[in-house]
Design brief:
This protein is α/β, with parallel strands linked by helices. The protein has 12 helices and 13 strands.
């Protein structure tokens, strides 16, 4: 089983209440593929980098066995750059700068093996490019997509065309509200279901995530982390864990999707412990397993009889 990932490969400038770093490796495809690589193999990464992209950042993917055949290099420009600043409570991110650079010329071309992936992850990227990928894949069993306010505000029509073609949409609470004009997340979910997807995940930052599928609601807790350094990439690491698990197990039942939500939450919880993808560089499978059980214990509700 294999997973196809498309998205941005970036350098980020990030300011949090705990520090400031520039040109940290980032991008939706970076976090998605690294996170998923702990579950399924191979992960086919489709993206583009510019002339400034460092060899050591390529090695990070290679060390995790990620297939880079579909990672294009365009020496005529620089890698996508994104700068942002987080509020003190880390729940609000202000975008300061988005330089598309080589992304402006990106045309995702899938390799033959990537076309056959059982699961497809459309990372946060221009919706037109997400559609280009869907036009090339063969018969994936499950397609999920992420997006962000940038595309909701400026690219609504193309975005809706993409949403209509996926099995699952993953957004955070504010994006769900912005996309639908509904404040209640349950009402927003109803509107999103009329757009096409059968499954929906709404991420609520440090308050966990909701999975809505076949009229059932599952609420995953958030892991109480002592030191959050950088929330960047948490959403993508979540989706990587979620889809990596589904791809590996090739099981799309409701129960297995609940497991996937927890594996996604586990990966997000590790990612925020360091700047950029640093924490994923030295993460082990045992740590992932252990945190899964901690998540399980977090919401074990005893019977009312005492
Ligand atoms: P997340 O924190 O999971 O929402 O994802 C953050 C990542 O998304 C950062 O590493 C950015 O490089 C990337 N990103 C930010 N804006 C865009 C955009 N407009 N298109 C594609 N990727 C973006």
């Amino acid at each position: 089983m294999s997973l196809l990932v498309v998205g941005s490969v970036a350098y980020d400038g990030t300011e949090t209440p705990f520090g400031k770093r520039d040109r940290v490796p980032g991008g939706s495809a970076t976090f998605l593929s690294l996170s998923a690589s702990f579950f399924t193999n191979p992960v086919h990464l489709i993206g583009i980098v510019g002339k400034d992209y460092a060899a050591e950042d390529i090695q990070r993917f290679e060390k995790r066995g990620i297939d880079l055949e579909g990672l294009q290099r365009d020496d005529s420009g620089d890698t996508f750059y994104y700068a942002s600043k987080y509020s003190y409570d880390l729940n609000h991110r202000e975008s300061l700068q988005t330089d598309l650079n080589v992304f402006e010329r990106f045309d995702p071309v899938l390799t033959d093996v990537a076309k056959k992936a059982n699961v497809v992850a459309l990372g946060n990227i221009e919706p037109r490019l997400q559609l280009r990928v869907l036009d090339q894949v063969e018969k994936p069993k499950f397609v999920a997509m992420d997006t962000m306010n940038f595309w909701i505000e400026g690219w609504n029509e193309q975005l809706k065309e993409t949403i209509a073609r996926v099995d699952m949409l993953v957004v955070n609470d504010s994006e769900a509200r912005e996309l639908t004009g509904e404040h209640s997340l349950l009402k927003a979910a109803e509107v999103i279901f009329t757009m096409g997807p059968k499954h929906l995940v709404i991420k609520k930052g440090e308050h966990g995530a909701l999975l809505l599928t076949d009229g059932e609601l599952f609420s995953a807790p958030a892991y109480p982390i002592v030191d959050i350094f950088d929330p960047t990439g948490a959403g993508d690491a979540f989706l990587g864990g979620f889809l990596g698990w589904l791809s590996y197990t090739d099981n799309f039942s409701k129960d297995n999707m609940r497991r996937a939500v927890i594996f996604g939450s586990v990966m997000a919880s590790f990612t925020v412990e360091e700047f950029g993808p640093e924490r994923l560089d030295n993460l082990t499978n045992d740590e992932i397993q252990e945190r899964y059980y901690e998540f399980q214990a977090l919401s074990e509700i005893p019977d009312p009889q005492h």
